[in-house]
Amino acid sequence: MIGFKNKTVWVTGASSGIGKALAIQFSKLGANVVLSSRKESDLKEVEKQCQSNTFVLPLDLSFQDNFNELVKKVSDQFGHIDVLINNGGISQRSLASDTTLEVDRKLMEVNYFGTVGLTKAVLPVMQKQKSGHIITISSLSGKFGFFLRSAYSAAKFAQVGFFESLRLEEEKNNILISMVFPGFVRTNISQNALSGDGEKHGKLDNNQEKGISPKKCAQDIINGILDEKHEIYTGGKEILMVKVKRFLPRLFYKILRKQSGT
Length: 262
Prior knowledge:
The chain is an alpha/beta fold.
């Protein structure tokens, strides 16, 4: 992909954090930006900061029954869907032993089934076009488990398996797949994360507070999309842990045991 001018880019989780930063950056590059999340009022605030054609389209990843209808609305609005950014989701902050099965199911429903459901709804459009790029925002927790992230990590691991398979299957249709693995980014993901009983964690993690800005994260992602990378990494020194795990596994677990989950 040479650039994004007049391309239609659909961003989920666009009301805050990484999604908001991506929407604004894509708008500056001349894309038609579809803004989706649960809260329409927040999306309209983001829309005010965009500099190109936008389409506010509320979406709840927990409810997949209307995804085909939403895809039709985007197609009717812009005529094509060139880039889908699967950014929407929810995190967790609780010990596995303290986490109800309902919370495990909630994270899988939103992060995995919601993401896969929307992707499957968009796929026929891209298959007909014989072009498209699907980007899914995973996490370092999609590469290795971490304290207080059992359900979140499970959903992110599941995403990786699905999209790696999809990449192989859709190459014939000129549809590209990229997985993004951010480290710590200064967003409200920890505040909105679920505790073991399903209530909001409601606290800003120290790790999150010291992370990179959403704007920096968004630019790294966009650069990776332009380079058509299969895997895109963004964050601080914590992203080096992926290589440490691969080449020095004993050192990896020694370091990991000393880290804080918050």
